[in-house]
Amino acid sequence: MGSILTACGGSDNKSVTIGAKNYTEQFLISKITALYLEENGYDVEEKKGMGSTALRKALENGQVDFYWEYTGTALVQYLNADPIIDPADSLEKLKELDKENDIIWTNMSNINNTYRLGMKEDKAEELGIETMSDLADYVDDNPGEITIAMDSEFANREDGIKGAEEHYGFDLGSGAIKEMEIGLQYQALENGDVNTAMIYGTDPQIKEFDVRVLKDDKDFFPAYHAAISMREEVYNDDEELEKLTGDIADKLKNEDSIEMAYQVEVEDKSEEEAARQWLKDNDLID
Length: 286
Fold this sequence. Notes:
Pfam families: OpuAC. The protein is α/β, with parallel strands linked by helices. The chain has helices spanning 24-39, 52-60, 71-78, 87-98, 121-127, 132-141, 152-156, 161-168, 185-191, 205-208, 232-237, 240-249, 254-265, 271-281; strands spanning 14-21, 42-50, 66-70, 103-106, 115-120, 148-150, 177-179, 196-200, 211-213, 226-231.
């Protein structure tokens, strides 16, 4: 059963259960939320380390009260809808579709863990490439010079490299795509095996390997913003939760996620240390 929000019954104690998936970014934003709610009088239980489908099921059956979910993931994976490029439209569609599941969507953050292309900073500077349009122009002017590391899914999805080529009007040609497992693309960049790679917008390796994220200046890649997905019963019983999670959502951005994950994965800080420092830096706790 989900946790009981006892504040509504007249007690000063409020309890809530927050879910999280099984990777560093999720651990961090869950911990940020837990610490902030505790500072504001809540007893918080964290249930973390779940896969996407398991966590969604836990929300639906009341094992967790809310968690940070990605808009594109929910549309495609849970609701069998097409991904949407515009973040606000994506959130509105989720509100519409998930209403029948008694799930509320609110407080979309500026963390957008969508597909991106990246290059080593020095290489991008050398070639004068800052945006996807710059990349398209360079490919047209210098056939055969750009090589891109990616997994097989991105190589074949319509919202992957094929769609990007069509949207931006370039053709990589044969031999440019180097397929490999996710995670290996950064080492391939570092080793000079390729000069470009498919990445995710909040990968901590962006900082670790000094990668320039190419701006999607013609808005091709769908929105995968982290937003609050909450059981309707919980939302209705405790309006303070929306305000408090909104305080966090208003300040969260990609650079924060990259930096915190880097601190945890490379500098060996604990998730709680990184999360607490973020809250202090953003004037949410003393």
